[in-house]
Amino acid sequence: MEISKRTKGLGTETAFEALAEVNKRVREGKDVISFCIGQPDFDTPRNIKEAAIRAINEGKTGYTDSAGVFAVRESVARHFSLTRKIDVKPEHVAIANGAKPFIAYAIACTTDPGVGDEVIYPNPGFPIYESQIIANGAAPVPLPLSEKKGFSFEIDELRARISKRTKMLIINSPHNPTGGIIRLEDLEEVAKLAKTHDFWVYSDEVYRPLTYDREFASIASLPGMYERTIICDGASKGYAMTGWRLGYAANPTLGPYFARWITNTESCANHMSQYALMEALDGPQEESRKMVDSFHERRDLTVKLLNEIEGVKCLMPGGAFYVFPNVTAACKKLGVADSEELRKLLLENGVAVLADKHFGRRNPGDNEQHIRLSYATAKDKIIEGVARIKRVVEGGA
Fold first, then answer.
1. Rg for the chain (alpha carbons), in Å?
2. What's the rounded Cα separation, in Å, for the pair 260 and 267?
3. CB 389 within 8 A of CB 381
4. pLDDT tens readout for residues 118-141
């Protein structure tokens, strides 16, 4: 019995593999501070949990429309309309078990397999972009991000990658793994290119609430762009709801087709969880704001401490809860081959990070080394964890 080449070659999200390695060490009694996983260390706010309990007690435990409960889609549409300053109708909205399925649904809706359709995606970036492009039979075209531009991309680099086969561009702002934010003027240039060359834009906005130093800007808010933009968001990051698996997307053309894909795959999003989502979006926002304020403080602390390490250079990210420090000099100082070897060395010394290789292939001509840390952890752990990195790098442990 053979396994398909598509399955054998399917990529993964290596953060979970690293987390499994960390958990194994912890079970063995080793002391490890982990900066691996992008998960808020807060509990889901009580009012949200109570909304789900009410839904269960009221018998909301069966199938829903594939696109989601209409009242919940109305809530998502209001949220999108308010936060993106556009007119989103509930008919444009679909709700899924997490935001991740919409990556595959969007690619499936905009490309055909085996005919050379191309999807441009950020590199480094969320690894599921590339794996789903390939799994759906399209051609992945990596778009290099520039450290000198705060881990955004050069418009000329994007322009050079657009062809007659380009069907979709994936953008992610705030960005995983770097925390970078695409500037409004660059979004405006992307919009011009999308209209000129007639391609879709998949705007991954799951870190929208975690935008610290400027107002969040969505490309869908620009004139004429909502029609060709798939807005994707989720409850995981802003409301500490990773395990609830709630994602939502909107587009006036593709919304019904997303519902068709959901019928074919999930049937519908978790029924009672949808009412938790409605409470998250419509209910009090104080707890969410407290989380964001805490992440803001942790960002500043993490960057400050990392920049005090000889051989480490860390930009101040504009959003999300990640930093992506340049460790090229540290690798040279320690005599390790690259950031992956540094990651292994740090793990042996009780601190877990991810290497840049976990977020895509190295861009041609780029020999800089980076690691990713998630500062979605307590301040005392940040202080101790970075201190361990400092001891390794400066002491040659």
1. 21
2. 9
3. no
4. 999 999 999 999 999 999 999 999
- The dotted CATH code for 5-43+287-395 is 3.90.1150.10
String of b and e for 132-158 (b: at least 16 CB within 10 Å)?
A: bbbbbbbbbbbbbbebeebbbbebeeb
Fold of 46-282: Aspartate Aminotransferase; domain 2 (3.40.640)
**Residue written as token pair 């085996």:** 114
Tell me the average pLDDT across 14-26.
Answer: 80
Listed in order, the ranges of the chain carrying CATH 3.40.640.10 are 46-282
Count of alpha carbons within 13 angstroms of residue 193, beta-carbon side:
23
From the list 396, 397, 395, 373, the residue with the least C-alpha distance to 385 is 373
pTM of the model: 0.95
The overall average pLDDT reported for the chain is: 95
What are the tens digits of pLDDT across the range 245-257?
Answer: 999 999 999 999 9
